[in-house]
Every structure is written in C-alpha cells, then in structure tokens.
Write a structure and sequence with these properties.
The chain is of the alpha/beta class. The chain contains five helices and five strands. About 45% of the residues lie in helices and about 20% in strands.
Length: about 110
C-alpha cells in the first residue's frame, strides 16, 4: 500500500483526509513533526501544506530533499504566491486549496514511488 505523509495544521482537513483517502496515512500537524515523520517512515509521497506552525512547508521541503534527494513532495496551499517557491526548492507539483479529492488522488498516483 502507498504510504502518504500529510503535513497539515488544520485538524478538520486531516480528518477529511483520513476519511477520503485510501492509503496508509502518516499525519503531521506542524513542520517539525513532518520532518521527523519523514525521516522515521520514508513515505512514498509527502503532501506538504506550505503554511505550518514551528517550521513552514518551504523549509521542510528543503530539509527533506537535503536528506533524501529522491523524495516526492507535492505542495498544498491556499496562497497562490507560494506555489512557485515550492517548485523552486524542489516540490514535484502544487495543488491549490480548495481542491477535489479526485485531483489529490491523481497527484498521489502520479508521484508515489512504486
């Protein structure tokens, strides 16, 4: 089964992911926790909110890629101006909130390590 790390500080959205996505999910509520979980679990794909407490998503993307240059990270943001920054630092793609769960599933399937 595909292992997906989701970094998201909006708890209701984490609950939505749990209900809607049929993957093994690892859920992080802030940037520090996301980095720790990535190191510990080496997920197939990481969905990274860019506005996170403790450490923002851009910084976490940089740190994950420094550890694992093959990491597959998709940035999630409601702030359009952050998308290009995420791509610059190495995110594979960006999805804008709000999105359809089908769009998210397509990205997971496209980028998950097989």
């Amino acid at each position: 089964m595909v292992k997906v790390l989701i970094a998201e500080d909006y708890l209701e959205l984490l609950d939505f992911y749990k209900i809607s996505l049929g993957y093994e999910l690892l859920l992080a509520k802030d940037g520090d926790e996301a980095l720790e979980m990535y190191i510990k679990h080496k997920p197939d794909i990481t969905l990274m909110d860019l506005k996170l407490p403790k450490k923002d998503g851009i910084e976490v993307i940089k740190e994950i890629l420094a550890i694992d240059p093959d990491a597959r990270i998709v940035a999630i943001t409601a702030y359009g101006y952050l998308g290009p920054k995420a791509l610059e630092v190495g995110a594979k793609d960006v999805i804008r909130k709000p999105f359809k769960i089908s769009e998210l599933n397509e990205l997971i399937n496209k980028y998950a390590k097989k």
